[in-house]
Amino acid sequence: MDLKECMNSRRSIRSYTDEVLPDDVINELLVLGTKAATGSNVQPWGFVVIKDKAAIDVMSEEIKKEIHDNLEEYPYFKQYESWLTNPKFHVFNRANCIMAIYGDTSSKWYDKDCTLAAANIMLAAHDMGIGTCWIGFAERYCSTPEFKQRYNVPGKFNLVCTLSMGYTKMQMSPPERKVPKVFYNK
Q: Which end of the chain, N or C, is surrounded by fewer C-beta atoms within 10 Å?
């Protein structure tokens, strides 16, 4: 598909097949992600890829419990309270792969650079028939010292994005968006 078609049709996907993403496909996505623009060419990104379905399932339950038990700390998740107690709800959409993108905080622009890398990955994945979804629920969990130590993330790297990933189970219609707000154009 051409670039415009890819951009116009990409959606956040929350339903994946059981087919495992091959290592060469994940590596290609990582390389394409690192083609993103980067402030002062610092390239501050680092990645954690987890393909252990059992570990992903445990993480989902731990995240649900943590957020539910501490909703006062997460007022933006209050609207999802019923999801957090629903045994059918899976934080990572039952994906068999998640990717966490971290940025080296020694770069002033690490969060922007890593967000651009995430966008590249999401568009490239869509072009390959792979769905992705940015998972806000995982933000705190994947930022803990315990998680970072378990997955060899250096202390000076902060989480920017966690994606669930997998082959798309069904085609979705293109997203509808509001007309852009333009404040000045002369």
A: C
